[in-house]
Prior knowledge:
The first copy, chain A, is an alpha+beta fold and 104 residues long. Chain A has helices at 14-20, 24-36, 50-63, 81-87, 91-99, and strands at 39-40, 66-71, 74-79. Chain A has a single domain (12-102), classed as Winged helix-like DNA-binding domain superfamily/Winged helix DNA-binding domain (Arc Repressor Mutant, subunit A, Orthogonal Bundle). In chain A, strands 1-3-2 form a three-stranded antiparallel sheet. In chain A, β2 (66-71) and β3 (74-79) form a beta hairpin.
Amino acid sequence: xxxxxxxxxEDIQLSSVLHALSDPVRLQIISDIAAGGEQPxxxxxxxxxxxxxxxxxxxxxxxxxxxxRVQGTQHIIALRSEDLNTCFPGLLSAILNVGKNTxx
Amino acid sequence: xxxxxxxxxEDIQLSSVLHALSDPVRLQIISDIAAGGEQPxxxxxxxxxxxxxxxxxxxxxxxxxxxxRVQGTQHIIALRSEDLNTCFPGLLSAILNVGKNTxx
DNA sequence: ATTGTTGTACTAATATCATAGAACATTAGA
DNA sequence: TCTAATGTTCTATGATATTAGTACAACAAT
Lengths: 104, 104
């Protein structure tokens, strides 16, 4: 089985996190996770190809924004809220609160 | 004289702002402005060519992060704190606070 | 076993970005 | 007017990012 690399908390970079979140599709994804808790990839209602979704998921994972856990055929995605709040207090909630009004 | 376009407050996009701030050089720039108030471009202590700095300043300006004002031969750069705090409450301070510890 | 689901890997096309050298424009000041 | 200071524009280049098509592997359900 393939090993999915996740950065350690202390290796999470602000610029990488901001870049990972600077895409509307990825903002949508983390917004969905934040609202509905951890969930498999196929739950996300984004108008893109599967391979493209994989790319975005990987981008978020490698930046340290999400945690990916394998469960059968599914990959369960969870937000690394605790790590993010420790590294960048207030950042995640500030971004997620924006989505509640007019996202994009 | 050249007209410098700035987006209106209501046209500022979260993804664009996050992208503008996802570069170490640009994080440095806004960190400097936040700490020392508005200042001309040549004040920034970044190891890049003038043309590159112009590119970064434009990226920040077009995303709605900074306000550029011409004063003689100088371009004075200011943070659009009020607009950003209105559009994305808490975002700017969360990002700037990170820089106070370990930036990059 | 067969079939369908789920997601990755590989590959490729296209687009965007960061960087900087050179030339140019504008302004201030001597 | 001449010169220095300040930035922009033009252009080019190498690096990444985005997107998707195809194939493949792991698993579930029948």
